[in-house]
From TrEMBL:
It comes from Mytilus galloprovincialis (Mediterranean mussel). It comes from the Eukaryota. This is Reverse transcriptase domain-containing protein. InterPro entries: RT_dom. Pfam families: RVT_1. Residues 325-432 form the Reverse transcriptase domain.
Length: 444
């Protein structure tokens, strides 16, 4: 995996342009121009020659068609960076409160600007106080009603709509957007604030994290044996008489892609291509994605932009030193369309593993409708029945980051996951590139 750091944004469209994705019109992607463009693209896919340049060209055309429609149909947020920021209106503010507020304001002006005698001023003062009290009581009652209804909605979401529940929780209160300090502590304990040195430190640390580290305890003899066997298995797939896994390598169906696209999380962040999930949930786009995925599966060539990801560092522990890169959890933002293709492959593999009874029944991780609760139930049952119990708790530090991809691919081959699907997985994990986003700047 290659990692470099730079201080300028590259290969990104206008990153300051933000769309109001909750206001996508019903006629999105239904115009004759866009439908014609996508149908032409489908024809180009079917006639495409199997080269990397052609794959990239087709994918870029798809992105441009979608972006053109987004620019024409979807409203955008205004850039308020140079404007005065006003407080947002209270969510429970309504027309009745507006009317009471206006009445109170009028009464206040009449009282403060009155130049009459004492009795007139006293009368106006009482009228103002009465209007103010009515407004205050109505405001408090409206706020209580709003908060009570919101609490009831959130409680109902815990069981009916868990995704919406966490979205509501995230929106409660104010958000603190803390920037990453552009300084580090070197090996001598000195604080370094030179931007280039800081960026180099982030580059080196994340590069070391994703490329793994050498260990004297690693069995290199076993590794060489495994790699030799892996090479033989891959060579065997090139034999014209090789029979690949029929279920995993069959043609992709429209139902498969439709189900995956429609179940994608619309509010997930997009990757380098900046195409969000929600603009893909239209029939003509899904049909185009189907043709694109079939081409990728047949050729084992993926769009070049799919191998690029944006790493967003998130501080693991708020009390830890924010100047240390390894105190951050790197969350990679990938192309949404590439994640749909990965979801398609994962769904086929998961069904195959379950149908062939390959996974051990004791494994609950990464299994549908299984979780840590199943292990807890098992342990609790053994304890209650007074049976012997031997437990080992193992915490593998940065396990996912250190996975050897060649060993992972070998494991797939050993379980008869081969052919076009295997080659697609291999293409996705080969020559992957990452950049880190630091306070709005992208490494490259």
């Amino acid at each position: 995996m290659r990692h470099c750091i730079a201080t300028q944004t590259k290969e990104k469209r206008n990153s300051n342009l933000r769309y109001k994705l909750n206001l996508i019109p019903l006629d999105f992607m239904t115009s004759d121009i866009q439908r014609s463009a996508l149908l032409t693209l489908i024809e180009n896919i079917e006639r495409c020659r199997e080269t990397q340049d052609n794959i990239d060209k087709i994918y870029n055309e798809l992105c441009e068609i979608i972006f053109s429609e987004m620019n024409d149909k979807i409203p955008k947020f205004e850039d308020n960076s140079s404007k005065k920021r006003y407080k947002h209106r209270k969510p429970y503010w309504n027309d009745n409160l507006v009317s009471l507020w206006n009445k109170m304001s009028i009464k206040e002006k009449e009282f403060t600007h009155c130049k009459g005698n004492r009795n007139t001023r006293a009368s106006l003062r009482n009228s103002y106080i009465q209007a103010r009290d009515i407004f205050d009581k109505t405001l408090r009652r409206t706020e209580r009603t709003y908060r009570k209804m919101k609490a009831v909605d959130i409680e109902a979401m815990t069981t009916k709509k868990p995704n919406d529940f966490w979205e509501k929780i995230r929106n409660l209160g104010t958000r603190n957007h803390k920037s990453i300090p552009i300084e580090i502590v070197d090996e001598s304990g000195n604080i370094e604030t030179d931007e280039q040195l800081v960026l180099d430190k982030w580059r080196i640390d994340f590069e070391n994290l994703y490329t793994g580290s050498n260990s004297d305890e690693f069995d290199y003899e076993h590794y060489r044996t495994v790699m030799s066997h892996k090479y033989l298995l891959e060579t065997n797939m090139e034999d014209p008489l090789f029979i690949q896994n029929e279920y995993l390598n069959r043609n992709i169906t429209l139902d498969e892609i439709h189900d995956i696209v429609m179940h994608s999380k619309s509010k997930s962040a997009s990757g380098f291509d900046e195409i969000p999930y929600i603009v893909l949930k239209f029939p003509i786009v899904i049909e185009t994605i189907l043709k694109l995925f079939q081409l990728i599966l047949d050729t084992s060539l993926i769009p070049s932009i799919w191998i690029k990801s944006v790493i967003c560092p998130i501080l693991k522990d708020p009390s830890s030193d924010a100047r240390m890169p390894m105190n951050y959890r790197g969350v990679s933002l990938l192309s949404c369309i590439s994640k749909l293709y990965s979801a398609f492959m994962n769904k086929r593999i998961t069904f195959y593993l379950e149908n062939e009874d390959i996974l051990a029944d004791e494994q609950n991780g990464f299994s549908k409708d299984r979780s840590c609760e199943d292990h807890i139930y098992t342990l609790n049952s053994i304890v209650r029945n007074n049976k012997s119990l031997f437990v080992a708790f193992i915490d593998l530090r940065k396990c996912f980051d250190f996975i050897d991809r060649d060993m992972m691919l070998y494991k797939l081959l050993k379980n008869n996951i081969d052919g076009k699907l295997y080659n697609s997985i291999k293409s996705i994990y080969q020559n992957s590139e990452s950049c880190v986003r630091l306070n709005g700047k992208l490494t490259s």
